[in-house]
Automatic annotation (TrEMBL):
It comes from Desulfovibrio legallii. It comes from the Bacteria. This is Uncharacterized protein.
Amino acid sequence: MLHLRHLPAVAAADDGAPLPAPPPLDPAARRALDSLSRIYPLVLPAVEARLEALQDDFIAQLSRKMQGRGLAPQGRLRLSPAAGNTVLVEGEEDEAAGLRALFEACPYLGDLFHEMARLAVLAHGMEVTSQAYTGEGNNLAAVVADNTALLGRYQMCLKGSLSHFYLR
């Protein structure tokens, strides 16, 4: 999230006086952040376990539906969330078209894919937030730089037994 701030009007000449310090974080907000930093390590494994279970279920359902329609893509197909709980399918056009038709006929698969995307971003965000707040490595810039995938998209690469999910 980007917050824009306008610089206050200042006198043309700098008199060298130090600027006032920003107000400290109020105690309630500080306690909430401390609490979150302790909760994340407890909640994160449950979120990740749920995500893994959903991914396994998604792969099983998708494979069964593909077999039922005689779809056996040979190339690499990339799936990512799109508007309205739909799934964007990218890859060789003939193979992608068959999978697009499958998602149109089975909208619950799109719902499931979007739920997995939300959980993946949530889990990743919790991990990054915890690292940033606790000062893991004492280098916030490194934490942010190492986690630029948070700004990307949740995707699935569909390539037979090499199929996998990732945040891009």
